[in-house]
Amino acid sequence: MDDCIFCKIRKGEIPSEKVYEDDKMMIIKDIDPKAKNHFLCIPKNHFKLLSQMTEDDEIQLKHCLKTIPKLEKELGLEGGYRLVINQGDNAGQSVFHLHIHILSGQKMGWTPA
Ligand code: 5GP
Ligand code: ZN
Question: Which of 16, 51, 60, 72 sits CB 3.0–4.6 Å from 28 for a disulfide?
Fold first, then answer.
């Protein structure tokens, strides 16, 4: 998508602090961290919602979920971490390219923001 921030980051048109990349996904530091350690895992395919995934999108998302645990040491996630996928308005989704928040580096409560 031409006007998507994460597609622009993927193409290198917007700078980011990229900590991991392969053919299906990338992991960048969130520009406005909501935890001491906050990354975004972004599948390379552009799709907005889990309900809209194509088969190829599913392959990419599964790859994300299998790869994150392999990077625990590299990303400093050893103490535990939380994965969040915001879906739509009530969740406050602000970038409409599906992504997984990786939150860590501190104890986390359970209060919706
Ligand atoms: P959402 O609200 O859609 O679940 O999450 C979007 C996230 O993207 C937010 O945490 C926001 O801080 C982050 N974000 C928005 N624009 C940029 C950007 O240009 N670079 C980076 N690294 N993160 C961004
Ligand atoms: Zn996109």
Answer: 16
In the block, residue with structure tokens 């900590």: 19
Q: State whether the beta carbon of 37 lies less than 6 angstroms from ligand 1.
A: no
Q: Is 26 in the pocket of ligand 1 (CB under 6 A)?
A: no
8 A C-beta contact, residue 40 and residue 49: no
Choose which residue among 28, 30, 83 to substitute to test ligand 1 binding: the one with the highest number of ligand atoms within 8 A of its C-beta. Answer: 30
- Residues 87 and 35: their CA atoms lie apart, in Å, by 19
What is the distance in A from the centroid of ligand 1 to the CA of 95? Answer: 7
Which residues belong to the active site? 99
pTM over 0.85: yes
